[in-house]
Known about the structure:
Elements: E1 11-14, E2 17-20, H1 22-32, H2 43-73, H3 76-83, H4 91-96, H5 98-113, H6 117-137, H7 151-164, H8 181-188, H9 194-206, H10 211-215
Helix pairs in contact: 2-5, 2-6, 2-7, 6-9, 7-9
Amino acid sequence: MLRGGTSTxxxxxxxxxxxxxxxxxxxxxxxxxPDPPLYPADPAERQRALELEDFFDEHCAHxxxxxxxxxxxxxxxxxxxxxxxxxxxxxxxxxxxxPVISPVMDRAVRNTYDINPETAARGREAVEAAxxxxxxxxxxxxxxxxxxxxxxxxTAAAILSVLVRPPEFPYxxxxxxxxxxxxxxxxxxxxxxxxxxxxxxxxxxxxGTSAEVAAA
Length: 216
């Protein structure tokens, strides 16, 4: 349980109000800073954008977690780097205790998120199906709904960013060249797909360079 009463990630603090769950975060951001809008004004487009947001948040997000964690959990140093635990206070003690902690963490994460080679394989299929959907839904504007960036693009690009790892991603990320071999091979089959390039484009157009990444 995180301070503020939520165990949901991501979490944002706006004027002392701690909000968990990406959908609720977007709603609050839209309420506080409505320009530029993330929700299309046209009712039909708005409904379609919300349906896509729900699809990527509720389906693709769970599957990509399994895909990424399954191979990373087999390499504790990479898992620590990917989750940032190697940079937190007390990381030296954690590394010292890694032979004891890693098997416990492996079991806990796998049990919590139902991660095993079979669910990871199904997850890869689901992620590829999500990429298929991006390629079907994307319009001439380059966006998923209408002629401008919307909640649909924000969610799709954010969910897939852990796989694509665009340079504008706001936090430290593992170099894809250091990925476990099975993850690297699968990722390499996707890099030329329009959906993969779409994520790179959305970050390049709308994220800007992260101050945290630039300072690293």
